[in-house]
Amino acid sequence: MTEAGPSPAAPGGPSNELEVALNEALKGLNCSVEHRREETIVNAPPPDLVAVCRALTGHPRLAFDYLRCISGVDWVTKLQVVYHLWSTRHRHRLVVKVDLAPEAPSLPSVTSVWGGADWHEREAAELFGIAFEGHPNLKPLLLFEGIEGYPMRKSYPQGVKDPTPLQRDRGEASQ
Question: Looking at the whole model, is its pTM more than 0.85?
Answer without folding.
Answer: no
